[in-house]
Amino acid sequence: MHYETIIIGAGLSGLAAGIRLAYFDQSVCILERHTTIGGLNSFYRLRGRNHDVGLHAVTNFAKPGTKSGPLSKLLRQLRLSWDDFSLCEQNGSSVVFPGASLKFDNDFSLLESEVAESFPQQIDNFRRLHQFLLEFNELDLSQEAVSARKAVAEFITDPLLLDMLFCPLMFYGSARADDMDLNQFVVMYKSIYMEGFGRPFKGVRPIMKALVRKYKESGGILKLRAGVQEILLDGNRAVGVRLDDGTEIAADRVLSSAGLAETSNLCKDQLPIEPSERQPGVVTFNEMIDVIDTEPADLGHDQTIIFFSETEEFHYQKPDQPCDLRSGIICSPNNFQYGERLEEGIVRITALANHDYWLGLEDDAYQAAKQVWADKIRETSLKYLPDYRSHILDTDSFTPRTIKRFTWHENGCVYGAPVKRLDGTTGIDHLYLCGTDQGFLGIIGSMLSGITMANNHCLMG
């Protein structure tokens, strides 16, 4: 077997890259270790109900027919239609800290007015920051990593407002403890505060199905239960892969969505990378999903997402405890403007987690701990939600152990390693990265990562 390009991983970035290459008549094969597609943004069925794994909301919302922006670019590059995503707008979200809150939706003017009202002495600084971010070229893949906290603090001098602005962006896109790369801050600021949240009525499943359909229609090959054991090298050049069952597949190039450290492992640590780049991330999460017998809005809660911190200083790091109850995300998938009601109510609550604790438990202790900490996380959220506990029909939860099982990310870290390779190079000829450790995050960002790396490395001679 020989392909022009082998792609490791059938997540969003891998599928998008595959579509792009197959459209230009490349022979391309996507290899996925698991029995289903999606990676961090997959779906599953449990006790008769469909669940999304990672989807709270799709960032970079745009209305159908919009000619500019990441979503419009994505659809053009993949030859998909607006109906393939069918995004519905959020109702509105908020950031809640002690003594202050900021509402935002898909109209940036709301956030601007909230900052003006709650932090009147900072509004001019905020507007200068906004202009700086508008002029920043986050698509420059040659730029060096810069601390976003240091850069933003040159504009925002109130530490509370600074932490409130960072909170949603870090929760949804930072692999670094207590900071972000400035590039990623800009990406997330634009995708969340300026473009906003949307969600398909039926969750991530229709998006994944549309990607697979387009990929196969274009001639791409998708192999499930085909885990890669090793990337084969000839000197300093990638020439193919060896699968878990020993099968060898040759390729002109390999595009890996596994992550930088994980790709290095597949090369038997022959990647010429710095020790700092080899360090895996430590920021990861527990999430619990409650299914309830009514919609949250019927109980008086109509916000889409609440990002909260119990302390004025936002802590975004590996906690000492199994989970950090000082902050979290409350997502209500019902609270988008669908035009019809979901069959059941859903409440998703996310907290920072200690990966060492969750990865080190024996099976029986692990199941018991999941229940204990799901109850604790839910209890914390009731400061921001009506008490819905009497309406619960079913509960599921996942941990860093779940994430590691289905993504193979070291430490079960959602956003990969702190050091990113924006240009996708690895130091090995014909071996490139896409996805988490390339640096574009979120559902739209992941797909754009696959497209950009395919364009830059697999279609350019």
Automatic annotation (TrEMBL):
| InterPro entries noted in UniProt | Amino_oxidase, FAD/NAD-bd_sf
Domain named Amine oxidase: residues: 12-278
Q: Name the Pfam families on file.
A: Amino_oxidase
Q: Tell me the keywords, alphabetical order.
A: Oxidoreductase
Say yes or no: keyword Oxidoreductase present: yes
SUPFAM superfamilies in the record: FAD/NAD(P)-binding domain
Any one Gene Ontology molecular-function term assigned to this protein's record: oxidoreductase activity
Q: What is its EC number?
A: 1.3.99.31
The entry assigns this protein to a family as follows:
Belongs to the carotenoid/retinoid oxidoreductase family.
Q: What is the protein name stated in its UniProt record?
A: Phytoene desaturase (Lycopene-forming)
Organism from which the protein derives: Rubinisphaera italica
